[in-house]
Amino acid sequence: MQLEIRERKIGQIVILDLTGKITIGDGSNKLRDEVNRLLEIGEREIILNFEGTSYLDSSGIGELISRHTTTKNQGGHLKLLKLPKKIRDLLTVTKLLGVFETFENEQDAVLSFGVLGVVPQQNG
Amino acid sequence: MQLEIRERKIGQIVILDLTGKITIGDGSNKLRDEVNRLLEIGEREIILNFEGTSYLDSSGIGELISRHTTTKNQGGHLKLLKLPKKIRDLLTVTKLLGVFETFENEQDAVLSFGVLGVVPQQNG
Amino acid sequence: MMQAEKVVEITIASSLELIDIITLTADHFAKLSGFDEEELYRINLAVRESVANAIEHGNKYNAEKNVEARFGLTELRLSVSIRDHGAGFDPETLPDPLDPENLLNPAGRGILYMRSFMDQVDLVRHPEGGMQITMVKNRPAPSSPPPAPETSSGGEGK
Amino acid sequence: MMQAEKVVEITIASSLELIDIITLTADHFAKLSGFDEEELYRINLAVRESVANAIEHGNKYNAEKNVEARFGLTELRLSVSIRDHGAGFDPETLPDPLDPENLLNPAGRGILYMRSFMDQVDLVRHPEGGMQITMVKNRPAPSSPPPAPETSSGGEGK
Ligand SMILES: Nc1ncnc2c1ncn2[C@@H]1O[C@H](COP(=O)(O)OP(=O)(O)O)[C@@H](O)[C@H]1O
Ligand SMILES: Nc1ncnc2c1ncn2[C@@H]1O[C@H](COP(=O)(O)OP(=O)(O)O)[C@@H](O)[C@H]1O
User: Other CB atoms closer than 10 Å to residue C35's CB: what's the count?
Assistant: First the structure.
């Protein structure tokens, strides 16, 4: 299944719910475009929710790294939520688990951004 | 998915619930063996329930005809229950719809056997 | 943008358990072609019949003989050719499975499936031996998803 | 019963949207081999990486160049070879993606995937040009479902 991305906002934080495969071509491109679009409109605190996806090829992993780096370079944060075991294993194999901030549940992820997320308010 | 066959009895009537594909090789063979086994132990009134299957290749259709003929030759009846549209279409294309007795709901199929099925009693 | 034919070729040994490899490919091509689920099912069945015939009647389950499939996708149509290495046969001489006197014959409906579900079916003896069946299905008019174009710059077409 | 290698060969044009045809076949073979769902996933990923490399680095998305896949299944192992028609490369010279200084490099993990998920990976230049990657995975010990035997009399093995 091709990657689908749903966007939610909690306060200043954008959560992208990912469903499908993040692979070379469409999947990676979509993720790149979506994160870049958020950065362009000024968003800086982004959570990628992996609950609906467990297929990530090396191009998909590369895209995660690129978006992580780009976000950081612009003073933002890209955090990973609810990694399925399969993706966690891939990040272990590639020794990347330490590179990303990862969370098991959404509230922890939201609160980790500090004051921005303390008073969650539904937007859009 | 390979064909799976679950057997139920209502009075003297055996209902085979089919799930999966009825195709050349395994699927057709399994259906043949199961109906033949029933005939060998003396069963004569058989309903094939297609609710869980909609994939029937020409070998599967051939198997239906063979089992229908064999059952009839031994004084029994083989009836078809809950044909999905796709299988109904295949029987239309092959002009076989008139060859089989088909039913939309289980009670009608059971009652069609006459006195044998009038007082349904759960067996086994 | 005009695009060339997109081609996939598959060779399998004569084993029923390998048929799915060709039908899975048929599904994938049918999806790329824009066919709906109902047509996917029909294409899948037609392809299954032709491969089963190649294994059963053509190669007679001889595992040393291969079945060769060729899928071709253009803007207008999907084509599937299946070739075996058997003795071949003359399709003109086959009994008609719709003739009332053949109705209870358990076999003889595979080619009927193919002809019913595809737009064009050609059965010819291959010049180098064996039978070759070519089935063509015209693609649905490009409504919402247009025929997948291919970029040459690294992106995926569709 | 000793059985010969069961072989499937697939040729695709260099198009990312055709990769799935080869990974679907990998899934089917992996199932026939008796691998569990976890290993299916890993085999699928390794195969995807090798085909993606063949299209991207080997054939450089040139639709006129093909990628050729060969699957072979014996009682003991599943092998997958992927060949392209590019310039080839020397695997010895590649940077190590696990080296801390390469950790944030967005590329360079495909071959690591293959080596992690398959039991043996050989990367060689094909004598007639292009790169050929051969990956082997040993089949699980035949516990409940034994390695599918093949009858030659018309029945399906498993
Ligand atoms: N590839 C083939 N090689 C040789 N003979 C074939 C081939 N395909 C079909 N035939 C012949 O045509 C007949 C009809 O085929 P088909 O309509 O598929 O029905 P079935 O396979 O059930 O007999 C077969 O019984 C066989 O004699
Ligand atoms: N089939 C191939 N033909 C030519 N070069 C290749 C091929 N496969 C891999 N390479 C080279 O090896 C490098 C590492 O490949 P890989 O580990 O898959 O990572 P990536 O594809 O992300 O670069 C590639 O960047 C490329 O230079």
Answer: 19
Q: Relative to the CA of D133, which ligand 2 atom is closest?
A: 1
What domain count does chain B have? 1
Residue B119 lies in a domain: no
CB atoms inside a 10 Å sphere around CB A74 = 12
Could you give the maximum distance between any two Cα atoms of chain B, in Å? 38
pTM confidence score: 0.86
ipTM of the complex: 0.84
Q: For D8-37, how does the pLDDT look when each residue is reduced to its tens digit (9 = 90+)?
A: 999 999 999 999 999 999 999 999 999 999
Q: What is the pLDDT of residues B100-113, one digit of tens each?
A: 999 999 999 999 99
> Sheet harboring B122-123: ordered strands across?
B101-103, B77-81, B45-56, B13-22, B4-10, B122-123
**Chain D CB within 8 Å of residue B92 CB:** no
Residues of D near B (CB-CB distance < 8 A)? Answer: 155-156, 158
Single-letter residue type at C9: E
Do the domain assignments include residue C70?
A: yes
- Residue A86 to residue D41: CA distance in whole angstroms: 9
* CATH, residue D22: 3.30.565.10
| Angle between helix B26-40 and helix B58-73 axes, rounded to 10 deg | 10
Are B103 and B81 spatial neighbours (Cβ–Cβ below 8 Å)? yes
Is C16 among the domain residues?
yes
Domain that holds residue B83: 4-112
Q: Which domain holds residue C35?
A: 6-94+107-138
CATH number of the domain where residue B59 is located: 3.30.750.24
| Residue B96 lies inside a defined structural domain of this protein | yes
Closest CB to A93 among D103, D105, D116: D116
User: Is B34 domain-assigned?
Assistant: yes
Q: Residue whose CA is closest, atom 18 of ligand 2?
A: D110
Region for residue C145 given its phi and psi (left: phi exceeds 0; alpha: psi -120 to 50; beta: otherwise): beta
pLDDT band for position D152 (cuts 50, 70, 90): very low
